[in-house]
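Dock FE2/S2 (inorganic) cluster; give full complex structure.
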Amino acid sequence: MSEIINKLEHKRDAVTLEDLEYILSTNKFDNQIFELADKIRKKYVGEEVHIRAIIEFSNYCKMDCLYCGLRSENKNLKRYRMTPQEILDRAKLIAEKEIKTVVLQSGEDPYYTTEIIEYLISEIKKLDMAVTLSIGERSFEEYKIWKEAGADRYLMRHETADEQLYDKLHPSDTFENRKRHLLTLKKLGYEIGAGCMVGLPGQGALELAKDLIFLRDIDSDMIGIGPFIPNPHTPLKNEKGGDLNTTLKVIALARILVPTANIPATTAMGSIHPFGRQMALKCGANVIMPNLTPNPYRPNYTLYPNKICLFEADTACINCVKGMIKGLNRVVGKSYGFRVKLASI
Ligand code: 5AD
Ligand code: FES
């Protein structure tokens, strides 16, 4: 076995930026990396795949991230907001389907006040589910209030750990600030979900290596990785998107470097290849996030083109992902699916 694979397997904390840059700049080790990631996934998080139902409750966004279809500058999007009652009705339906996590996702939308989010959390907690927030950067005080209301997890991708690239892609944010938010969330007791896109303009092997080092350094509990898919209604419309193989490799390396993390087979993976999510589940992923956004809203949460599941029947994605899990000879998770603690292994 090559020295580099040996190091990945047995000395993950000694793996350097240079090692990762090298691995990401050659295809030589790809199959070994994919196999190792699958083996590590099995060893640390087992055969269960956790289902997290996502409700995209508002596509309003005050930010202007260059890659994202929800950016406020995009006038080519029908905007919607779900009412708290609509959101809670949806959460109830999800609970009835015996799914143990609801992900509340939206653009950065201040319409939903501290109190509204707090109310949603406390109501959903009564349904005996884990609550994940994915609503962007808010004040540290709000994070605290929501944690106390019962929120369990917070998804906030770091998007790219290359500071210059981050700052270029986010006109009103900086990487330093993003990192501060993630660290604060972690300190407050949330499980945090960092992660990045793969194939952003100006992002090569070195920049992706930085993403992986960042994920290991902050010990991200969850890691969302997907290809960048150029959106025709954004300034990055003419850029090339991320490719399947590189994205799979970044997912696999994330599993290797953070063995107990919960790693989703992302919707973006499914959107660039009909079996993209299945492949991700075989290269380190152990989570899947079916879309439970109700109609008529669902087709309007268009971060990027060709997003899957937009026209599926109401709750069809639940059965679809269950079928997918079984088809891969894996097991549908029945627990809340918190991160496993190393000591218990
Ligand atoms: N392609 C792929 N992923 C995207 N996201 C936003 N826009 C795009 C795009 N064009 C991702 C970001 C964000 C998550 C909700 O969706 O990483 O954090
Ligand atoms: Fe939505 Fe398969 S997960 S159709």
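Observed: The mean pLDDT is 98.
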